[in-house]
Amino acid sequence: MHIKNSFQNTLDGIFGFLPNLLGCVLLLIVGFIIAKVVAGIVRKVLQKVGLDKQLRESDASKYVDKVPAPARRVASPEWSSG
Questions:
Q1: Which of 26, 47, 69, 81 could covalently link to 77 via disulfide, CB atoms 3.0 to 4.6 Å apart?
Q2: Cα–Cα separations (whole angstroms), residue 47 to 8, 16, 42, 55
Q3: In sequence order, which ranges of 1-68 are alpha helices (DSSP H)?
């Protein structure tokens, strides 16, 4: 009978963990979607304000040019696909 109880306890633990795992995955998906929406909004606002152009025309351009290319590609509207 100890084997049966042990097996049952193992299954109870596994199935008891599944709702936590599904909740975690759901939270990650919702967070990813919210992050994408916010990033799109921020990108559009920065494009309308013309921040990229203003930074390049100001003294800050020497600092902007020091930013590694992958970071500029993500932040710069001229590289965005959307």
A1: 47
A2: 59, 48, 9, 12
A3: 2-49, 51-57, 61-64
